[in-house]
Amino acid sequence: MKALARFYLLAILVFLYLPIMVMMAMGFNDSALYELPFRFTTRWYVALSGNDQLISAGINSIVIALITAVLATLAGTMAAVALDRRAVRGRTLLQLLLLPPIAIPWLITGTAMLVFFFWTGIGRGMHALLIGHVALAIPYVVLVVGTGLRTIRSDLEEAAISLGSTPLHAFFAVTLPLLTPSILGAALFAFAVSLDQFVISYFLSTPGFATLPVQIYSAIRKGFTPEINAISTILLVGSMSVIVVFAIFARPGGARDKR
Amino acid sequence: MPADAIIRPAASPSGAAAGHRLPSWFATAALLMPTYGWLLIAVFLPLCTMLVFSFMNATPMGRAPIVFTLKHYKAFITQPYLVGIAWDSLVIGFWTTFLCAVLGFFAALALARATIGRARETLLILILLPFWTNGLVRVFSWTMVLREGGFLDTLWHALLPEAGSIGFLYTRPAIVLGLVHGYLPYMILTCYIALVTIDDAIIEAAQSLGARWWTILTRVLVPLALPGLTTGAILTFVPVIGSFMEPRILGGRVGVTMGTVIEDQFTQAFNWPLGAALSFTMLAVILAIFATFSGVLRRNAGGVA
Amino acid sequence: MKITRRQTLGLLGAGAFAATAPLPFAMRPARAATKITVLNWQGYGTDEKWALEAFQKATGIEVVHDYFSSEPEMLTKLRTNPGAYDVVLINSARTQQAASEGLIEPIDFSKVANSAGLSPELRDHPNIKFEDKTYGVAWVWGITSLAITEGSAKPDSYAALADPAHKNKVALFDDAVTSVAIGALLTGQDMNNPSDLDAVKEKLKGFKDNVKLLWSSEDQWNKSFAAKEFDLSVYWSGAAVRSKRNSNLPVEFVVPKEGGIGWLDNLCIPVGAPNADAGLAFINYMIDPDFYVEWATKIGAPASANAAAMEKLPADDLNRKIHDPSYLKTMTIQSALPDDRREAFNNLWQEVKAFYAG
After folding, report:
1. Which residue intervals of chain A bear CATH 1.10.3720.10?
2. A2 at C interface, C-beta within 8 A
3. Where would one find the signal peptide in this protein (chain C) (predicted)?
């Protein structure tokens, strides 16, 4: 059974990585029009090294995604805890209110933000981008962390309180360690949502300040070259290595499960 | 400030605390404040603007006088072909969600039951990592896999040189495939979160009572994973209905969905009111589906417990 | 009015500055050389690096860009960012709308010396006039018509789009106005104001079995054509030159008997432009024959509105061959559409697309 399960996981990974592999391969293919057969070149990486616009856009994206992940995870986790563990009037309504940001196409939310931010003087720029990204990431965090909370029994926490622990201490000592994987997962999602977000970034960025998805979106019209594959590959390999380093040096235990 | 907000509510034990402590509702409000305050400014107020727009005759930019009308909400009646598009979008949404749920549930199950420790953490990260590449680049890569003479065909012809093309770019299945690829990690993660907390003892107890694997799956594992499946379904179905990139790029001629219609209204046609009215109608349909769905779920859960 | 707009801009600018100060673009040197911001499609002539360097060397004016990806988006950007742009590219079908909304200024041609060489029928085209004033400098024009794989039979009519010989091998331009124009030309109607839209709709629906995909960008067209996904398509004249010359694609541009769908792009000065005179100087450079010849031969461009520039091209130049000046007399240029007509076109195209998908 275990062998079958592992084989299945492998198959899922192959499926998930198939287009990623193609993306990476095409970054080394000579044809600007992504034509086959494959001819090896590194010229897109050479071209990329001189493309300051694309590089700075890549850096901007990472910075915004990191800030977004931190802010959205903090706010969203707090809300998820309140919604799951405390008496909240109108809980269902509050939960339903998490859906519009996901359900309304980002194009509309983005246009609405552009108009509203213009009227209220918030304007465009990195701050506006952050406001938008965090808002879009929050519902994902609340939903993911909420799922985690629902599967953690609250009686443990209550037992701790009845034994004289303060609610704060009970939460941090009992629930939070169990919740950590959910919170980490939510943060990874928030990061991904921000990194992939192009519509809102496109509307809210100012001339000269762009994120990578905005650059890619603008490039659809003309010149979507394998340079974009190259920088995507670098970003992915970069984040992979960060995670590998993190995994090696992170203290063992922590989020590890009992088994 | 957020740290402050976490500590303060919890520092006031509900009810029995000293008089100068803040009341319990204040703590709850402080926990909810950042999320809903943020959503209010960044999403709800702007969307309210759009809601007002959706009752206007034309996009309120430029010099034309503003006339209020309901005509955009009647679009489904005056332009009946939109009903067909909406239905197709729902079908694509259901297929995507269904496939994600099946594939994702078993992936999460395998992850939770057949791996441990660092291997499991690494696998989980590996599953989430494709998400960190741009969606457009991923969809575009799929076109190179699926088109006639693409990677899939090349592989196929390497096995069977005489066979015809199996490329299926510009078809409905291509759209669903692209969407499943994009949303599967959500489902795996939410199911995993639900499954990982399941106690071994429950399954062992079921096994010792002679339950078959099918019974364990349907009577124990799926109900326990239900919160994860529900969240995953929300995170898949809801955005898929409004997606426009995957249908447009992978669908070619058949790639017409509510998402692309709405996108056209905003970009090409510059008819924001119609685009907004269509998406609010869509939102209403989605909310109705989930209201029905959660009602059914609650009734079933009540019957079992 | 102007003052309040400036104030709004100040607010926007201040906000942007506060949040993004460490980034170089936000630092506007108080007393440096003049800098102008151009709003255009990306990769459409005004942002050629070599040209901007030459222009800056000659005039000391630095040019930066902001881009749009659809015409309504361009108008929205002008409306929501008054005072942010000095030059904007506007399709002549939208010029009157922009002028009537007070988004752009009438042109002072005395500051655009090269305008003397403009073809009169373009310089004074009714499309770019509003209340007897000219609001744009005619820059480039082109034709939307058919492109085929080199060597295949040349279609003599748009009816080829419905010919079973091209089954599943046709790409259409995903644009309501262009598609309606084709349907109108096929049914012998005025493409800017067809009276029988149902006939247009039926004609377009007749392409269903042939349509493989709808393209929306030149890049997408190039990649799909390179992958041999279609052999007949609706395409732009200037893009056909670029696809053939820069990407070495075997494409041939054909204007069938019904005539091409003409378009004219002009460069305009937005109301409240911080450096209008520098903007005009840039426009002047953009219609300079020397710049055009270099752009057209090195990169590939639509036809210049400047007759002198077209004559400077080598006689065998592909661009010159495709953009025969005689077309100027015969082709219809897309003109301004009233809102209700545009909406009718859009709804029609949406319905046809739904039919294709069904």
Report:
1. 56-249
2. no
3. 1-26
Range B72-304 classified under CATH 1.10.3720.10:
yes
State the pLDDT at residue C262.
92
Please list every residue in chain C whose beta carbon sits closer than 8 Å to the beta carbon of residue B61: 75-76, 79, 101
Give the domain extent around C171. Answer: 142-261+335-357
Strand, coil or helix: A124: coil
Q: Among C217, C229, C246, which would you mutate to test the A interface (most chain A Cβ atoms within 10 Å of its Cβ)? A: C217
Residue B137 contacts residue A229 (beta carbons within 8 Å): yes
Residue C38 backbone zone (phi > 0: left; psi -120 to 50: alpha; other: beta): beta
Asked if residue C151 is part of any domain, the answer here is yes
In chain B, where the domains are located: 1-53, 72-304
pLDDT at C64 over 70: yes
Q: Indicate whether C15 and C43 sit together in one domain.
A: no
- Residue A191 amino acid letter: F
Is the pLDDT assigned to residue C302 strictly greater than 80? yes
Indicate whether C135 and C149 sit together in one domain. no
With beta carbons under 8 A apart, name residues in chain C contacting A123: 11-13, 15-16
- Predicted structure pTM score: 0.84
Of C209, C207, C188, the residue nearest C199 (C-alpha): C188
Q: Nearest C-alpha of chain A: how many angstroms from B22?
A: 14
B246-260: pLDDT as tens digits:
998 899 889 999 989
C148: β partners: C232, C252
| Same domain, residue pair C119 and C248 | no
| Alpha-carbon dihedral sign for residues B265, B271, B274, B279 | positive
Q: Is C253 in contact with C147 (CB distance < 8 Å)? A: yes
Is C177 in the same domain as C113?
Answer: no
Residue that is written with structure tokens 């992170």 in the block: A250
Tokens encoding C47: 């942002």
CATH code, A56-249: 1.10.3720.10
Residue B5's pLDDT band, with cuts at 50, 70 and 90, is: very low
Residue A221 is nearest to which of C16, C217, C227, comparing CB atoms?
A: C217
CB-based contact, B148 to chain C, within 8 Å: yes
Same domain, C177 and C274: no
Paired with C65 in beta bridges are C38
